[in-house]
Design brief:
single chain; alpha+beta; 48% helix
């Protein structure tokens, strides 16, 4: 059984990290859903096709991530966006969208700091 926790756990691995953490077969969606269910956590399996799997079986795929998000530090920005969106009553899916949209606005030469700078413009697009 999954460990008992007093708060939700959200993991944000990229493909290499996911492969080292979880042993499973099937498609990326099937692997992520199984790992989330078996470990009682939400998993945001990052990539061009980010898979968000919740322990209750819900799965969402976000195909909006530009390839230049595969840059050091951008996963930390995503983790911060997820935490802030949840604290504000938002969703993980919304945070993943904001992350991808901010990256698109920042452009292909981004670093984590410029990604952070583009987040307010992505938020304004939602208003």
């Amino acid at each position: 059984p999954p460990p008992r926790r007093s708060a939700p756990t959200i993991l944000t691995p990229h493909g290499g990290e996911f492969g080292r953490m979880f042993a499973s077969d099937g498609s990326k969606i099937e692997q992520t859903a199984a790992a989330a269910r078996e470990n009682g956590c939400t998993i945001v399996h990052k990539g061009a096709d980010t898979v968000i799997a919740h322990p209750d079986g819900r799965v969402t795929v976000s195909a909006a991530a530009p390839s230049w998000l595969a840059t050091a530090g951008t996963g930390d920005v995503l983790a911060g966006l997820i935490a802030s969106r949840i604290a504000a009553g938002g969703t993980i899916e919304g945070a993943v969208w904001l992350h991808a949209r901010a990256a698109a606005l920042a452009g292909p030469a981004l670093i984590a700091d410029t990604l952070i700078d583009a987040v307010p413009a992505a938020v304004r697009e939602c208003l």
